TrEMBL record:
GO terms for cellular component: membrane; periplasmic space. The keyword Metal-binding applies. This is Sec-dependent nitrous-oxide reductase. The keyword Acyltransferase does not apply. Keywords: Copper, Metal-binding, Oxidoreductase, Periplasm, Signal. The gene is nosZ. GO terms for molecular function: copper ion binding; cytochrome-c oxidase activity; nitrous-oxide reductase activity. CDD domains: N2OR_C (cd04223). PROSITE patterns: COX2_CUA. Coiled coil: none annotated. It is an enzyme of class 1 (oxidoreductase). Its EC number is 1.7.2.4. Residues 1-19 form the signal peptide.
Length: 623
């Protein structure tokens, strides 16, 4: 039943429109749309028949689940959950040695912003980066396997919060922080906030082997909060921008809300120049990191005044402009890179803040846009024609507008309170248009009730025509902040892990499955295959591991099935451990046999008709 929805956020009846658009297509006769691009009904536009695949992958941040959610677009079917910063028993993530070490003892994270690796400003489909606001980490995922390959604990920082912030050729991933803390996180009184606290931006790189993340250098910024950021493109490729708030340097939240300055700043920096400064030794060593102090080393970093409390900042696909919006002001402001570079060249500053030159608002601003009654602008995406799509958190809508003229072209209500949106190939130099997914914070009455707390919601918007149209909706677990959408054929996954004959822990031949004892260490070189475990090929019972209480046990398990999708699991009853071995993969789990007794072993991943029979015993002789 379609009933009139009341939007708590806006008081506007926009919910009614969205509900009509959504429910109208599924409960009534298929509606023919007037969109020029297609005469299909909305239901037909999002229906991907069995056997066919979606056109795009959407990688959505899982927020405080610490995971990444992978969706197909246009169906909005969830395909995969990839654990990144949190443990995940479904995949054994955090139990096997490699992932346990990567998690570094943390059991959760808050993943906000995924960003694809880029070549010439285009997503290349190779890697995905992500940041953890909760425990100050950054991760890189390999898209050949959809798995996390490395996690870096970023020193000297608290709460890296970046967005789509990879440079054109993935030279750097920049991580500005949401919280300012004393360098090294040591104790300092909040009375000394302005002198002892800093907001640190880290420049992170992927090493030559493309397996490890490293900090190249850091910049000690003023004690403000740094929010969103974006890298330049084409002519602005050497530059990057990030938004700030709390430039008043308030030390309690109440004060931040009460004494809001009229303007905050966008930090504009030239990373090529910072790179040069580091090469010339213009930095100080802080806890082993190369730290640039802008008040001592001039150049490369500038401030641009912007409407108060900006949240997002986004660079247009042509690299000419950056758009920032004061989330407490209705204004969308378009700034010009060319004008900014000109002002920098002329040293045309209005003064300094914390030792950093401030550019004049009027000399960098290109235009201000104020869509009537639109409130709470957060983030902007782009289509193939250079048009911008800005989410309005408070008035619960997406506004389409032209950054070159400031003309507002269309508005569509979403349910409700969108944070980011994600356009097809939206952060590249050549977005596809076609689709935009609005990542809504509040679903309210969209889905079957699940109690007081409701899911978040994603709404798919057809942006191919002049008018936007909401054509699909899906509930989603907490909590997508940002997402990136990539053309599906750019990602080349593998079916089976290749054999690595140099890996001493791998066992590829059944007769080499063995148990070796060194003192109180027991090493099991085992095989998992349809549908049995072989731990010791020479033993009377090949699927039994027998140890003494207190032994230190290493199980190196190789999946010897070389067919795609034949994944095996390995769990021991009551030992609180479960690992996974994907086809061809070798994984190790290490633990102490601290409980004497008889414990069944079983494969947790349904792998064949005889999966239920894929068991064994773990026998622990009492001391
Ligand atoms: S943030 Cu959540 S809506 Cu982390 Cu990009 Cu703007
Ligand atoms: Cu192997 Cu189930």
């Amino acid at each position: 039943m379609v009933k009139k929805a009341v939007t708590a956020a806006s008081g506007l009846a926009v919910g009614f429109l969205a509900a009509t658009v959504f429910f109208g297509n599924f409960s009534g006769p298929a509606k023919t749309t007037t969109t020029a691009a297609s005469a299909k009904s909305n239901a037909e536009k999002v229906y991907v028949p069995f056997g066919q695949k979606d056109e795009y992958y959407l990688f959505a941040s899982g927020g405080h689940s610490g995971q990444l959610f992978v969706y197909g677009v246009p169906s909005l079917r969830q395909i995969r959950t990839i654990p990144v910063f949190s443990t995940d028993s479904a995949t054994g993530y955090g139990w096997d040695e490699e992932t346990k070490k990567m998690l570094g003892g943390y059991t959760w994270g808050d993943l906000h912003h995924p960003a694809f690796s880029e070549t010439n400003g285009d997503y290349d489909g190779k890697y995905l980066f992500a940041t953890d606001v909760a425990n100050s980490r950054a991760a890189v995922l390999d898209l050949k396997t959809f798995t996390t390959k490395d996690i870096l604990q970023v020193p000297n920082t608290s709460g890296p919060h970046c967005a789509a912030f990879v440079t054109q050729n993935t030279e750097y991933l920049f991580l500005p922080t949401r919280f300012s803390v004393p360098l090294g996180s040591k104790y300092e009184s909040l009375d000394d906030y302005s002198t002892k606290y800093r907001g640190v931006m880290s420049a992170v790189t992927l090493d030559k082997e493309k397996t490890k993340l490293n900090v190249a250098y850091q910049v000690a910024l003023p004690p403000w909060s740094y929010d969103l950021s974006d890298a330049g493109k084409k002519e602005s490729a050497d530059w990057a921008v990030m938004t700030t708030y709390n430039t008043e340097e308030a030390t309690t939240n109440l004060e931040i809300n009460a004494s809001q300055a009229d303007r905050d700043y966008i930090v504009l920096f030239n990373w090529k120049e910072l790179e040069k400064m580091v090469k010339e030794g213009k930095y100080e060593d802080v806890g082993g990191q190369k730290m640039i102090f802008p008040e001592k080393q001039k150049g490369g970093i500038y401030l641009v005044p912007v409407a108060k409390s900006p949240h997002g900042v986004d660079v247009t696909p042509d690299g000419k402009y950056f758009i920032a919006s004061g989330k407490l002001a209705p204004a969308l402001t378009v700034f010009s890179f060319e004008k900014a570079m000109e002002a920098v060249k002329k040293q045309d500053f209005s003064g300094e803040r914390n030792g950093i030159p401030v550019l004049k608002y009027e000399s960098v601003m290109e235009r201000e846009v104020n869509p009537q009654n639109a409130l709470g602008p957060l983030h902007t995406q782009f289509d193939d024609k250079g048009m911008a799509y800005t989410t309005m958190f408070i008035s619960s809508e997406v506004v389409k507008w032209n950054p070159k003229t400031g003309e507002v072209l269309d508005r569509v209500p979403v349910q409700y309170s969108p944070g980011h949106s994600s356009a097809a190939e939206g952060d590249t130099v050549a977005p596809d248009g076609k689709y935009l997914v609005s990542l809504n914070k509040i679903a309210k009455d969209s889905y079957l009730s699940v109690g007081p707390s409701h899911p978040e919601s994603m709404q798919l918007i057809d942006i191919a025509g002049k008018k936007m149209e909401v054509i699909q909706s899906a509930p989603v677990n907490p909590e997508p902040h940002y997402a990136q959408m990539i053309k599906a054929d750019k990602i080349k996954t593998i079916n089976v892990y290749p054999k690595d004959e140099n890996n001493p822990l791998a066992t590829y031949k059944q007769d080499q499955a063995r148990i070796e004892r060194k003192g109180n260490e027991v090493h099991v070189y085992g095989i998992a295959m349809r549908s049995k475990f072989i731990f010791d090929s020479k033993a009377k019972r090949q699927d039994v591991i027998e140890v003494n209480e207190g032994d230190h046990v290493f199980i190196h398990l190789t999946n010897n099935d070389r067919d795609e999708d034949i994944t095996h699991g390995f769990a021991i009853n009551k030992y609180n451990l479960n690992i996974e071995v994907q086809p061809g993969q070798t994984n190790t789990v290490e633990f102490t046999a601290d409980k004497a007794g008889t414990f069944p072993i079983y494969c947790t991943n349904f792998c064949s008709a005889l999966h239920q029979e894929m068991t064994g015993y773990f026998l622990v002789k009492p001391k």
